[in-house]
Every structure is written in structure tokens, then in C-alpha cells.
User: What shape does this take?
Amino acid sequence: MPAASGDIQTVQTEELMQVSASTEASLLLTTVQALANWSRKHSMWPLPLGLSCCGIEFMATAASRYDMARFGMEVARFSPRQADLLLVAGTLTYKMASVMTRLYDQMAEPKWVVSMGACASSGGMYRSYPVVQGIDEFVPVDFYISGCPPRPDNVLNTLIKLQGKIDKERDYELRLDTPSAPEGQNVEEVAVLPGKRHGPPIALATDDERFVEQGPQKLIERGRKPEEGRA
Amino acid sequence: MSQGKRVTESCLVYTADAPEGVSEATQQALAPFDPEWSEHPVHGGYPGCRVHRSKWAEAMAALKEQAGFEMLVDHTATDYPDREPERFTVLGLVMNVDTQERVMMRTRVAEGDSVPTVSHIWKSADWSERETFDMFGIPFEGHPDLTRIYMPQDFDGWPLRRDFPMQGHNRFRD
Ligand code: SF4
Assistant: This one.
């Protein structure tokens, strides 16, 4: 049954008004987001987790010859509370992994993770019992840097790429309702999850028992068999 | 899952007489403990002496107190997985700092058996024995704090045993 013309008129006007309101809101949001992104990417303070030889290469990147300060990253913070970027440079052992996740948990959002070198990205040449085969078993990684060790210009290149990624981020959204939580989690819990922008966290736990539970599970989720090449 | 040839026995030859270079004082100090002597065939460096594991601590104490071996240079173990019945050899390299004399002390131990600790004789043996325990799972009786020293406390397995997997990690195996 065709609707009365007056009704159509009303509906259209309401729709138009909604569209225009959300457009204004998104214009504002985009502007604020762009401003936030600009300031974030030019004040990226790394927390260098120099675990072995790659740490030396990171120092070279930070020192005067390559000079990270040119891109607004000179303030290496050794307190996770003040850092934006966790830069894992070197060989991560299972014993150290709990320290790394604790540091990651303590960093304030927004935060990024760069895995520097073959060791941090995949275990590198240490395919053995104490070494974590890639820090992504425990934390979400934004960028992996290849090399053993990566050259400082490679590190710089990655950090500039990361700035580009931050520039494209659009995580601000207009929310008039309460955010919905995935089933079985309450809202507060979702809000404090580390790496929430990247899906569920890989490991929250800072004690080894949880690693034991979550490590193989993560491998399965990524389509790798737990025993694949590992036995 | 060791690879290549399995070593079932060390190549040492044990005799009742001390080899050249072992001082009188050392021989006397060790005499009550039924020592079996060996010359090291590869490096030619350190004369070896094997005692029963029940006399391990006493023999080491005698070496320090009577023969002046004041320094425990090294403490570790080796694993011969097919050797019956005592699969491990625990080693302690001791040194007399004054005369530069060294003796490689050895004792054999089966899996699950313990060795008396020497950590009350040399303080440095404390961490060394923890390391040997961590890597081989050999318990040291009387040790003040026998816990893992390198690996996480909940680690499963003894990494330096020859049947430990060459690659990968126990926690990723079913
Ligand atoms: S990737 Fe190479 S340089 Fe970097 S920590 Fe590993 S071994 Fe060292």
C-alpha cells in the first residue's frame, strides 16, 4: 500500500537531518583525529627493550649519525607508562617473556609494537628450547623488521612507515550508545584489554602458567600446528 | 632424540695407579675413597679421578682440606643415555692455586639418584650445582636451595640430556 506523501516527506527530512548530523560529527571527528594522529606520530616515544645484539643497533639508530630525533622519537623512555612504542630488539627468552608482557600491559593506549630483527620476529637462528619463536606469541606486533641485525636505516624506514600507519588510523568514532561487548565479557574488561584495537589480546598473563595455556592455542589460531617443525 | 652416533661410554681408561703429575698429597688425600685414576686422552691436561657417589662429598672435602685444592673451577655433568645402570657422570674440576695442580673429579649417578652436595665446601658450588640440576635433573642432596637457575621454574624437561629434542620446546609438543 503506497504511503501518504506527507509521511514520505517526513521520513526523508528525518533521514536528511540524520545524515547531515553524522556528516558534521564525522567532519569534526576527522579533524580531531587528524590532529591527534599528527601529534602522536611526531612524539613517538620508544621503550627500547634491547635484549641482545639488536639493542646495539637500536643505540646506533638513536645516536647522532642516524639520529632518530629528526623524526620526533628521540625520547627513549625506560618507563612503560611514558612510552608509546615497544621496540623489542633482540632475542626474547621464555623467562624474559613475562617481563615483556608486563611492560606491554603497563603501557598506556595508544601503543604500538615493533619487532626488530630476526630473533624477535621469529626466534632467528635460535631454534631451541629457551627462545620465544617470535614475540607475536605474546603481544600484537605492528611491524617486523628483517635483518640480523637490521641496519639503522632499515629501523628508521620502519619507524617512518609506522608514522604513516598512525596517520591513517581512524579509531575515533561517534558513540551515542554504550559500546557493546563481545559475549561473556563486560564493558570495562573490554576497555582495558591491551591491544584491543587489534582484536583480542594474545597474552594478558604475566605469569608463566598462562603462557603455557595460550602459546599452543595461538599457534593453532594462526593455522600452524603446535608440533609443526618443533618436535 | 639425539642425532648421529650415540655415545654409550666415555673413552677413559681407569687404573688403580695415579697418572703422572698427581702430587703425593693429592694421592694421600684421596686414598681412603677407593679412587680410580685416569689420564685424559684428548686434552692431556687434567688427570681424572673417579670415586663412588656416596664418597663424593668426603673426597672433595679431603682434597680441599688436606691437599689444598681451594678452587672449584668447573662443575657439570655428562649424559650417556644408554649406559647402564649409571647414566650420568658428574664432574668437578678442582684446582690447587699454589701449585697449579688440577684434578678432574668424577662420579657416576643413575637417573633419579642424588649426589651429595659440595656447596658447603666451596661456596661457588651452590650455583654450579643448581645449574647442573637445571640442565640434567640430577638432584644434589643437602643443597640449601636446589631450584632451577636458568630456565623458568615451571619449565618441563632437562635441556642438556641427550634425549631432549634438538629443536623446539616441550611445551609445544603433545
Ligand atoms: S636478529 Fe641477529 S643481531 Fe638481532 S638479536 Fe638476533 S642474533 Fe642478534
Q: What stands out?
A: The pocket of iron/sulfur cluster is lined by residues A 52-54, 90-91, 117-119, 124, 148-149 (CB under 6 Å). The longest helix of chain A spans residues 5-41. Chain A touches chain B at residues 94-95, 127-130, 208-209, 211-212, 215-216, 219, 226-227, 229-231 (CB under 8 Å). DSSP finds seven helices and four strands in chain A.
